[in-house]
Amino acid sequence: MSERILRALMQLFAILARVDDVSEKENSITSSRGRKIVALFLGQELSANLVEEYISIFDKYLVSIHGINKGKDGVKKKNSVNSVKILRICSDINKELT
After folding, report:
1. pTM: predicted TM-score of the whole model, two decimal places
2. What whole-number distance in Å separates Cα of residue 30 and Cα of residue 93?
3. For tag attachment on the chain, is the N or C end more exposed, with fewer CB atoms within 10 Å?
4. Which residue range forms the structural domain that includes residue 81?
5. Is 17:34 a contact under the CB 8 Å cutoff?
6. Dihedral angle at the C-alpha atoms of 37, 38, 43, 44, nearest 10 degrees?
7. Residue 79 pLDDT level (bands cut at 50, 70, 90)
8. pLDDT tens digits, one per residue of 59-77
9. What's the domain count of the chain?
10. What's the pLDDT at 63?
11. DSSP states of 35-71 as a string?
12. Is the pLDDT of residue 20 over 70?
C-alpha cells in the first residue's frame, strides 16, 4: 500500500472516529477505541515501527478534524465539511489506485 493511500486512510479514519474527549487546554483528543481499531488494521498491513508512525499521523488528524466547534450551527457545518473531505479523499484514493 502506498504512503499516499495510507495517509488518506488515516484522514478517513480520523473523520469517522468517535471522539471520547476534547480538551481545549491540552489541544488533545482521546479516542482510545478508535486508535486500537486503526492500530489493528495497520498491524495487518505494516511493520511495527510503521504502525507507530501512522498512529501518530492518525492522532494529528484527529486533533485537526475534531477540534473545538465554533458557532451555533457547528455540528451541521462540521458534517458538511467532513462530507466534502470524505469525497475528496475517496477521489484521491481512486486516482492513486488506477
Report:
1. 0.77
2. 27
3. C
4. 3-97
5. yes
6. 80
7. confident
8. 899 888 876 555 556 666 7
9. 1
10. 83
11. HHHHHHHHHHHS-HHHHHHHHHHHHHHHHHHS----S
12. no
